[in-house]
């Protein structure tokens, strides 16, 4: 079972999310918090695998709460929730290490699937979302970012670079394996090495780095 914690200041939203997620046989909503200020205590109390984190909350926003949660020992994965797909807080939360983001009008089946994907160790990276994210970070200082990104990529093998491009395109491990004629387990091992070598918190950060380096 994947243990899920919901953090949102709106009771109706929490109730709706709980109803949707609880309908999945492999998901268990273990707790709720109504503000980012309560998120860390709730994580310590309930030990979730995945946290659904609202961004805009009155006392402590989801960005600050995400940083605090991810600073814990053996932290859960965090998926940020927002009403606005261009909310700057979302980009900053992803940069801070969140594993993806969801719009609050995401269809129930996709919401469940997203939590399952993140719990399995992957980020929610649809190609459309990836393009918008990397476009956001391509706003200025491109040449200096490219030099920095290329320097960081020097530690990668040729095969790791191929996997990196697949990740940056928003492909799943299975899709990358089919394209590169590798098993899914081998791709997963390459992705793990990528994250370690590049000191990246998740696949979203890898995608941004690949874009900055001009690999897409």
TrEMBL record:
Gene3D superfamilies hit by this protein: 3.40.50.2300
Domain of life (superkingdom): Bacteria
Keywords noted in UniProt: DNA-binding, Phosphoprotein, Transcription, Transcription regulation
Domain Response regulatory: from-to ranges: 3-119
Pfam family name, one: Response_reg
UniProt entry tagged with the keyword DNA-binding: yes
Domain HTH luxR-type residue range list: 149-214
Keyword Transcription regulation found: yes
Modification 4-aspartylphosphate occurs at: 54
Signal peptide location: none
Name of the featured protein: Response regulator
